[in-house]
Amino acid sequence: MTAYYKATRTLEERFWAKVDRQADDQCWPWTAATTKGYGRVWDTSLGRHRRATEVALTLTGTAVPAGVFVCHHCDNPICVNPSHLYVGTATSNVRDMDARGRRVSRVPHPAARGERNHQAKLSDAEVVAIRGRYTGRRGEQTSLATEYGVTPQLVHLIVKGEHRG
């Protein structure tokens, strides 16, 4: 592709060429550049990158005012299917994350505990199994840690009931 050809294509042509459109009810993954997991596309008229989700809504007739968020019903940041997107505020976005248990912060949120926390090393079932198998014998924490691919310190916290995986 020559630079001349790229320059003559519209934003809409360039945008949809980078979308893996599947069935209407499925996610449509963005297949080009991303930043922090979200698609981005160069808008020549503005001379800057824009979020692919914003462009998807704009191209399909939904206005996206400045200072608002484009949120996902599907919780898939790379999805640009307009039927999976909606316009919201920072507050509504945080409420949605809390309702779905997706917010993880330094202060544990009750909905993001255990395997619902994206940083969890173990599933809830594995935590229950570790607690059930632990008998207190010498070296047992180390052997359980090796078996489950975690540290003995984590096994210690799990069996004491101070950690959920």
The beta-strand count equals: 5
Q: CATH class of the largest domain, please?
A: Alpha Beta
Low-confidence stretches: none
The CATH topology of the largest domain is given as Homing Intron 3 (I-Ppo) Encoded Endonuclease, Chain A
Terminal CA distance: 50 Å
Give the helix tally: 7
Tell me the strand order in the biggest sheet.
1-2-3
- The topology string of helices and strands comes to HHEEEHEEHHHH
Global mean pLDDT: 86
Characterize the structure shown.
With 165 residues, this protein is of the alpha+beta class. It has 2 domains: 3-100, Homing Intron 3 (I-Ppo) Encoded Endonuclease, Chain A, CATH 3.90.75; 112-160, no CATH class. Helix content is 36%, strand content 12%. The protein is built from 7 helices and 5 strands, in the order ααβββαββαααα. It has helices at 3-8, 11-16, 52-59, 90-100, 124-133, 140-148, 152-160, and strands at 34-35, 38-43, 48-51, 69-72, 85-88. The strands form 2 sheets. Strands 1-2-3 form a 3-stranded antiparallel sheet. A two-stranded antiparallel ribbon has the order 4-5. A hairpin with a 4-residue loop joins strand 2 and strand 3 (48-51). Helix 6 packs across helix 7. The chain is elongated. The termini are far apart.
